[in-house]
Amino acid sequence: MSGDSRGAGDRPILDVADLHVEFETHGGVVKAVRGVSFGVRAGRTLAIVGESGCGKSVSVLAVMGLIPMPPGRITDGTARLEGVDILREKVVDGQDVRGSRMGMIFQDPMSALNPTMRVGDQIAETLQVHRGLSWTQAFSRAVEVLAMTHIPEPEVRARQYPFTFSGGMLQRAMIAMAIACEPDVLIADEPTTALDVTIQAQLLDLLRELQHANGMGMVLITHDLGVVARMADEVAVMYAGQIVESGSVDDLFYRSAHPYTVGLKSAMPSRTTTRATGLHPIEGAPPDLFDPPPGCAYVERCPNAMRLCESHQPERFSVDPAHQARCWLHHPSAPVRIDDVYRGGST
Question: What pTM was computed for the model?
């Protein structure tokens, strides 16, 4: 499927709005996702970045219909795939969404793949269910997509079991399964976790190559800003279940508009980092999502927090037309402007 046939102009293929997800536990209700909104366009990559536990994976798993309910529940929001709310309708244009219109690459391919089935059979099963192919046709296509992921001897590998594959090859097999039905949107949840840097680079190049070939939109879940710089077109920065900043990848790295984004960058090594300068970790810990703070979730860790931040949720301020941030430092009446604090070379 070509990129020209997907979407119209800059209209998102997948448009998620005001998503709220909670989990009922013995200790109370965890408000894991609190009003998340983002859009994914054809042929473009949206990176959702943030530290562990911020709600990145839960957001996309909820959209895919993969969170266990109970204990999880979606309390509000929409996720429209080409205009159809897939949180309520699981079929778009006569096709099941999950596995067909949307594919997903999971963090741990060993636990995601069935150890009792041959790799080719697992890919073929997806094609039989979603495309109605015969087993012979589906297995032939499975070999074809394994070859697309540059697995050597795909005809042989398709007849082998997951335990015979290395970590990098397992991840390629997961990618092959995810793209077998030529999805409109591909979700990659930490696709390079636990892989060495050489294999990471190969897999990221592979994802970009497949995206260009198929014109699909991609959501990349990661905590690695190096991966973001390499892969992303747009970025959404998450903290404590909310998106605190969103914009282009250049906005994130060169025009950071939220103190948390600045903190993430300061904690990342760069060419100018030396033993003398060191890294600058973000002090403290994220808030308890059993009882989120009434104001800004970042208030306890922010070096420029104001009294207002403790009691009032920050508005979503437009820094530029396509660049937004939730921070009171953008308010015209703020005593200190974020431009002066973070863009003046003091950090």
Answer: 0.87
